């Protein structure tokens, strides 16, 4: 059995949301229709507006409805540091961790020649011209520690060879609070290769 | 840190959906903005339309954008049977189980005097006039097996006293496929009190 055509269509369309299957879609649709029509109207409206208006920051390519995002406009960020991340969510995670005071550049993905995603698709031409403007002393490559993320980092590093910009990347090693027993082999050998002098400070 | 005001507003508004917390809202918003703007637009549009147009069936009060729902219009349903349920989801569960061929009446809730929900709020006046029309021989009370559901069933039964309509309710007992060991005491004693002659058919 099914509901009316329009309710069925709502159930089906709700499944564009990640992690929403048939049961969750039904719960969501009935919740909105039975208990919170006002909230649903607000959601539909805000969603349409955000999808219409939110684009990429002209400077760092993060999501924003403004021409240049707040972080890029902020006078309190160190303009000599540029952190390259794959997605706005990564940028948010780094900001939430605190400590980093520089600026960002968001790739919105990684190089993936098989999927037809080349350097221009992830804004590397824009990154190059940003570096050409001068003022940036260090680029921190914070792509994901995956094969594709590493490949992208290496590609960017190769592009920057010969320039005066210092290149760095996030440290790889055992995560804090974990137990060595459960750390995977790849991470463990990275942590061994990258071992540091013990400091008692 | 936060995203731009409009993205933040989307994150916040997505939480009107049941079961969606801050992390899920972020994943949904970024998915729509980064990967599926078209799907998002479709969702916003269908959601707005459904919330605008879907109302209650004039006959059975289920959700439908039509005046009278498909099930009520169907000539293949037994008009002598009327099953009273608390929500459209309950109606769907019964339909999916198969077997029942009668019609429905949806209360959209249960009596709850403390919350100011009285007989009229759950359509009992409408139920009464539907029964007055005649033609219905049996009313099956399929409210939830909770205190409120039971109270609502009793209230409806009291209202129908003296009428010629036969009243029944769903059988209570141990659920199929379960293990007795894990069935709660209340259900077990119900199953004992309602025990039936063993049939070898």
UniProtKB/TrEMBL annotation, chains A, B:
Record-linked Gene3D superfamilies: 3.40.1360.10, 6.10.250.240, RecR Domain 1
InterPro entries: DNA_Rcmb_RecR (IPR000093), Rcmb_RecR (IPR023627), Rcmb_RecR_Znf (IPR015967), TOPRIM_dom (IPR006171), TOPRIM_RecR (IPR034137)
One Pfam family linked to the record: RecR_ZnF
GO molecular function: DNA binding; zinc ion binding
Annotated keywords: DNA damage, DNA recombination, DNA repair, Metal-binding, Zinc, Zinc-finger
Source organism superkingdom: Bacteria
Zinc finger (C4-type): 57-72
GO biological process: DNA recombination; DNA repair
Location of the Toprim domain: 80-175
UniProt-listed PANTHER family: RECOMBINATION PROTEIN RECR (PTHR30446)
HAMAP family in alphabetical order: RecR (MF_00017)
Family, as annotated: Belongs to the RecR family.
NCBIfam families, per database record: recR
Role, per record: May play a role in DNA repair. It seems to be involved in an RecBC-independent recombinational process of DNA repair. It may act with RecF and RecO.
Name used for this protein in its record: Recombination protein RecR
Phylogenetic placement of the source organism: Bacteria, Pseudomonadati, Pseudomonadota, Gammaproteobacteria, Oceanospirillales
């Amino acid at each position: 059995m099914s509901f009316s055509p329009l309710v069925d269509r709502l159930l089906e369309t709700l499944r564009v949301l990640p992690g929403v299957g048939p049961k969750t879609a039904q719960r969501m649709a009935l919740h909105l229709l039975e208990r919170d029509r006002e909230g649903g109207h607000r959601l539909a409206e805000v969603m349409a507006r955000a999808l219409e208006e939110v684009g990429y920051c002209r400077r760092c390519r993060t999501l924003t409805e403004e021409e240049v995002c707040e972080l890029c406009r902020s006078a309190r960020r160190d303009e000599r540091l540029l952190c390259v991340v794959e997605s706005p969510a990564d940028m948010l995670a780094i900001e939430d961790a605190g400590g980093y005071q520089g600026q960002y550049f968001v790739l919105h993905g990684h190089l993936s020649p098989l999927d037809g995603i080349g350097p221009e698709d992830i804004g590397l031409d824009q990154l190059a011209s940003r570096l050409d403007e001068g003022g940036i002393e260090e680029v921190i490559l914070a792509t994901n520690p995956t094969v594709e993320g590493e490949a992208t980092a290496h590609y960017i590093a190769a592009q920057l060879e010969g320039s005066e910009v210092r290149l760095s990347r996030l440290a790889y090693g055992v995560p804090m609070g974990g137990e060595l027993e459960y750390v995977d082999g790849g991470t463990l050998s990275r942590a061994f290769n990258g071992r540091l002098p013990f400091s008692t400070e």
